[in-house]
């Protein structure tokens, strides 16, 4: 008998076909919440779960007694209770690598767009305000040759740093739990203390996972340490930043600008001032959102769940301990 999978969001017909050849699939393309009764009912029978952006709670897992594996269509897994999954011997898989370059492209777009005021000036021309050559009040600031401070030099952080160092001749400073000698040699990057990075960088780019330690890593004190000419970029998770403190720093000119792909609450509440601020470029969490990369992510999730439910090691496994427990 075929094992049963519950899938939600972001799968194409081709991925669904692949899954259906191997498993019985219940697909919820427009799932709005984990409280959907039909979804809950299907989960009660499911061996596998595939999808993106759904808060998985222990209570939800209580209703999924046969669950063996979850394949998230994301690299981040902050909305999964990893320890709880491991305790229940449920494998958690994610999609690293396939989205690295695309997410770094998004990060660099934000660096360029904020520095050169791309959105503000595009709006200027749309309003019909281009009557004569623009004045100094609308000039931007250079990117090339500046100092890029990478907070986190994992896969995505390294790809942003590579763009900066090799493409734009930027000096790279970084913080990371461990030194990265190969990247230091390749990019001339230098590891430093967080405070030194904040005080010296022209661009501070956040690329860390959301954990208890990184929650509100950026608050009033950190923005105060940054240069008044500094530009803040966040392609990680919104909760790494105390958003009220960021808004205050942008309003008072404590920092120059911000490029944000992620927010404390997503979708961003309609009353947030951020997208309306002239010195902010706000994007709706599009880090990995290209046709090519979202397809590759979905394929990785399909491959992960297929391997996991066949008793083989998935390509990208978050909780190694659950795999070992299942083997033992
Ligand atoms: C996801 C992301 O699409 O992979 C990640 O961690 O941030 C995005 O690429 C998003 O998180 C959906 O869950």
From TrEMBL:
Read off the lineage from the record.
Answer: Bacteria, Pseudomonadati, Pseudomonadota, Gammaproteobacteria, Oceanospirillales
Entry keyword Oxidoreductase: yes
InterPro entries membership: D-isomer_2-hydroxyacid_DH, D-isomer_2_OHA_DH_cat_dom, D-isomer_DH_CS, D-isomer_DH_NAD-bd, NAD(P)-bd_dom_sf
**The protein's name:** D-glycerate dehydrogenase
Query: Does NAD appear among the keywords?
Result: yes
Q: Which Pfam families match?
A: 2-Hacid_dh (PF00389), 2-Hacid_dh_C (PF02826)
| Segments forming domain D-isomer specific 2-hydroxyacid dehydrogenase catalytic | 6-319
Q: Which UniProt keywords apply?
A: NAD, Oxidoreductase
Q: Which family does it belong to?
A: Belongs to the D-isomer specific 2-hydroxyacid dehydrogenase family.
Q: Which residues form the D-isomer specific 2-hydroxyacid dehydrogenase NAD-binding domain?
A: 108-287
Please report the organism this UniProt entry assigns to the protein: Modicisalibacter zincidurans
The protein's superkingdom reads Bacteria
**PANTHER family, alphabetically?**
2-HYDROXYACID DEHYDROGENASE-RELATED, GLYOXYLATE_HYDROXYPYRUVATE REDUCTASE B
